[in-house]
Design a protein that fits this description.
CATH architecture of the largest domain: Alpha-Beta Complex
Mean pLDDT: 94
Low-confidence stretches: none
Radius of gyration: 21 Å
Largest sheet: 11 strands, mixed
Bound molecules: adenosine monophosphate, magnesium ion
Order of helices and strands: EHEEHEHEHEHEHEEEHEEHEEHEHE
CATH topology of the largest domain: DHBP synthase
Oligomer: single chain
Distance between the termini: 53 Å
Number of helices: 10
Helix content: 25-40%
CATH class of the largest domain: Alpha Beta
Length: 359
């Protein structure tokens, strides 16, 4: 299959809207920008189309898809009940990076919900996603547009790397803003429960609906196989770069020393290493070349003065590390405050929870 790339910033809007809408109506796949990451979209109500998403991503079939809508009226066709909490959260955070889980209507195929009786719904704020859903009139099942297990795509180039030849069209609107996936909140039980942390924090949700719980399975590494995350996707080792990643936390000066020591050891052993630092620390890493004359890939993920830069660059830097062909990656740790938790959740998964604290 030939994958077309349309640049939404340069092309006439009517042209890309028409082309993407037609592909979706015919059961095809279109990668679209959203404010969180690029999504791989298909008609959510068409089981055959949804199945193509799983095939293109190599995604396990028990990992349900998020359905993207453009207006509240679409909820009527998706969920059997709309609790007060959902209405309030929608008023406050939609369109935006919040996904809500609610009991599904029978019309929503199990092929979209991974066999569950609930459906995950989100109203994205990205103008390209919104316009496409509104003009096509199709609710879009759209997981991240990466190969399963690879870092989520935050640029059209990332989508192309993973999906070229597997999907019909990529709508390229440049890098996305937030850079990590939506917060998922389950509203199908008594008390709202966060199943995946994201840009919208627990505190922000609590302010609107009162008590909120967090699925204990997402907070720490769980070796107990019976301790299953409620969002099936959270059990998979996600976001993994090819190099082995270790996170070093603690006092900044000690972290730099430790990373320098570990990286130098691996370099001396002939490996290629990568270091994830910040604008504040990047100049402090001096790692010798390895025996093949390869320099360490030392990259800044952003600035600690502006937390948003870190989530924005996270997946891109993991992919750039892959591109640099590093064997080992050492990363600084980031604040685990409200929003930082979302970044650390992804980084820890990418590291397979390998982390040391230097105090
Ligand atoms: P992605 O779209 O790739 O960001 O992944 C979607 C995430 O939402 C996965 O972790 C899914 O397991 C989760 N999800 C989607 N639908 C449901 C649902 N009905 N119940 C629980 N988790 C869900
Ligand atoms: Mg994903």
């Amino acid at each position: 299959m030939k994958t077309l790339i349309y640049n939404t910033k340069e092309m006439d809007e009517a042209v890309w809207l028409e082309a993407a809408g037609r592909i979706l109506a015919e059961g095809g796949l279109v990668a679209i920008p959203t404010e969180t990451v690029y999504g791989l979209a298909a008609n959510a109500m068409d089981e055959t189309a949804a199945a193509k998403i799983y095939a293109a991503k190599g995604r396990p079939s028990d990992n349900p898809l998020i359905v993207h809508i453009a207006d509240m009226a679409a909820m009527d066709g998706l969920v059997t009940e709309l609790p007060e909490t959902a209405v309030k959260l929608a008023e406050k955070f939609w369109p935006g990076p919040l996904t809500m889980i609610l009991p599904k209507r029978p019309e929503v195929p199990y092929g979209t919900t991974g066999g569950l009786d609930t459906v995950a719904v989100r109203m994205p704020s990205h103008p390209v996603a919104r316009k496409l859903i509104a003009s096509s009139g199709i609710c879009l099942a759209a997981p991240s547009a990466n190969t399963s297990g690879r870092p989520s795509p935050t640029r059209a180039e990332h989508v192309y790397e993973d999906m070229n030849g597997k999907i019909d069209l990529i709508l390229d609107d440049g890098p996305v803003g937030i850079g990590i996936e939506s917060t998922i909140v389950d509203l199908s039980g008594e008390v709202p429960m966060i199943l995946r942390p994201g840009y919208i924090t627990k505190a922000m949700i609590e302010e609107v609906v009162g008590e909120v719980r967090v699925d204990p399975a997402i907070l720490s590494e769980n070796k107990d196989k019976n301790f299953r995350p409620k969002a099936p996707g959270m059990k998979y080792k996600h976001y993994a770069p090819k190099g082995e990643l270790l996170i070093v936390s603690g006092d900044s000066k000690k972290v730099i020393e430790k990373i320098t020591e570990l990286a130098s050891e691996k370099t001396a052993a002939g490996y290629r290493v990568g270091i994830i630092g910040t604008d504040e620390t990047i100049g402090a890493y001096h790692i010798p070349e390895n025996s093949r004359g390869e320099a360490a890939a030392v990259m800044s993920i952003g600035t600690r003065r502006e937390e948003a830069t870190i989530s924005h660059n996270l997946y891109d830097i993991l992919r750039r590390m892959d591109g640099a062909g590093v064997d080992y990656i050492y990363s600084e740790s980031f604040a685990e405050g409200s929003r930082g938790q979302a970044v650390m959740n992804r980084l820890l998964k990418a590291a397979g929870h390998q982390r040391i604290d230097v105090g």
